[in-house]
Structure formats: structure tokens, C-alpha cells
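Standup notes
- DV: blocked on the single-chain target, sequence here:
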Amino acid sequence: MYGPKSSRLIRLKKFRIQIPRPETTGKRRERISCSAAMANQGAKKIVEKNKQRMDLLWRIILGSNIFYIVVRMAIMYSSFTWKHWFGLVVTSAAYFLSYKQLASMTKPEYSESGEKELLSAGYDMRTGGISEYLEDVIYITVFVQLASIISGKFWWTYLVIPAFGGYKIFGLLRGTFFSGGSEGEVEDEKSRKKREKMEKKASRGKMVKTRTR
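- DV (later): unblocked, structure below
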């Protein structure tokens, strides 16, 4: 029914390769603007979460101080001595320094233009690290301040802060100055796993060759 030319055309139509058209400038700009918008939304989310967390810390600090002043300084004023004044100064300094450092770390940066475009979201408190340590200092201070109303022995809990800080510093120093042996062990472990994989592949190849023979 079909001649040689028509059958050849049918074959060419079946095996025709479609070459993708190059991306236009408009589509490229649209893709870049879409990715930039997604990144900006992520940065705004970080700013919002940081603000919620900082507001919660501020309410905790304010509530703890109000409760301590009302109960320990007003209701139990007869037993309030200079030691309690010193403790109030210490807790206030711990609150102020920790909160100020967190506020400085999480402060977002905006452009100087009228639109106030978000340039940097600041430190993400959800990632932990130094922000988590500062939050722990605030929570421990709240516990010590409120528990000291019952007994002054709870001030010994404050030793947890320098002890944990020393533990972290020791870990950093050990990783910096004594990391040669551990790196060698990790490298040996990697090379061992790589060697085992190569041996398994080689054994499989030998098995295939013997079967084909």
C-alpha cells in the first residue's frame, strides 16, 4: 500500500528526536524571582519564630522578677538581707547579658530604602548552639531565683552554668589540639569500608565469569 518513500517518512516520524528549546530570558528571570521569593519567605519565617521565642523569654524573665520581688522582698521582707540583694543583682545581670546577646544575634537587617527589604534574618534560634546555651542560662537563673525563696542552698545550682561551659570549651580544645589521632581512625574506617566494597564487587565479577564459562 505504501511506497518506499512513504514508509521511510513513517519511520522518520516514529524515531524523530525532539530537541529541547533553550530557556528564554523571561522564563529564566521568572525562575530566579520565584527562588528569591521563596528564600525571602524562609527568612521572614525565621524572623517571626525568633521574635516569638524572644517574647516568651522576656515574659518569663519579667514574671520571675515580679514574683520574687512581691514574695521575697514584700511579703518576706523581715528576713531579706544584703545577701538577697546581692543575689538579685547576680540574677539581673545574668538575665540582662543573656537576653541582650540573644537580641543582638537574632536582630534582622533591613535595607535602607523605603521598602525596607529584608537582607538578613539574623541567627536562627532553632539551630541551637550558643543561643541554646544562653537560653539555658536564663532558665537556670529563673529556677535559682524562684527556688532561693524557699532555701538559699539552691544557689549551688548555678554551678551548672560554668561547669557546662567548661565542658563545651574542653570539647572544642580537644577537637582542635588532639584531633590528629581521631582523624586517622576515621580515615582508616572509611578506607576499610571502601576496600570491603571493592572486594565484594571483585568477588561478584569472578562469580559471573565462572558462570559464563
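- Follow-up: The mean pLDDT is 76.
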